[in-house]
Amino acid sequence: MSKHYGRTEPRLWTKPLRELTPDTSLGFEVIDYARQILHIELYPWQQWLLIHALELLEDGITYRYRRIIVLVGRQNGKTLVASVLASWWLHVDSQRHPDRVPPLRFKIVGTAQNLDIAREPWNSVKLWCDPQPETIEEQAAAIPTLQAATAKVSDTNGKEYIKSRALAVYEIRAAKNARGKPAARVIMDELREQKDWAAWNALSPTMKSFWNGQLWG
Fold this sequence. Notes:
Elements: H1 27-36, H2 44-53, E1 67-68, H3 78-91, E2 107-112, H4 115-129, H5 136-141, H6 144-148, E3 150-154, E4 161-164, E5 169-174, E6 185-188, H7 198-203, E7 214-216
């Protein structure tokens, strides 16, 4: 067995309100989704993050955190976490509470200081679920279950989005173009590279009209 290096637990973090189990955190569900659907075994720190970030309040349905800020070194798997999370949001979480947020209104927005950075997790989600892959290699990487759950993928520059058959949408924008319609979930990649508060001020209020919204940065 290979030896693990590093620490699973971060230096600074918020303690949970109670023991974290599959009943008190949806992080366990995301880990199972990664393992069973995406065939990805997440690193211990990634699993720890998901379990703690997706902690539920005592009602068993509401996320404890509306904003999650993550700081880890480069090349440690941040993009993979964002990709897995976005895929799970799009295909699973978007349909969890249709009485409160119907899939039609469930929008995921990915942004960064430039579109290329925001596109990285989006490309992974696209690769897994694109119902019309363009190459043999893309077809081999696609996951039939997710392809069947995807209605459309748009690659048009500046208008990239993935729409599920349930009508939830995952789109990406450059930070300067982030202001827009309300979003249920937001990923702000490379947050520390932002030079001012413009992107944060544009995106952080977009969840106010959404029950149980989350922003990851």
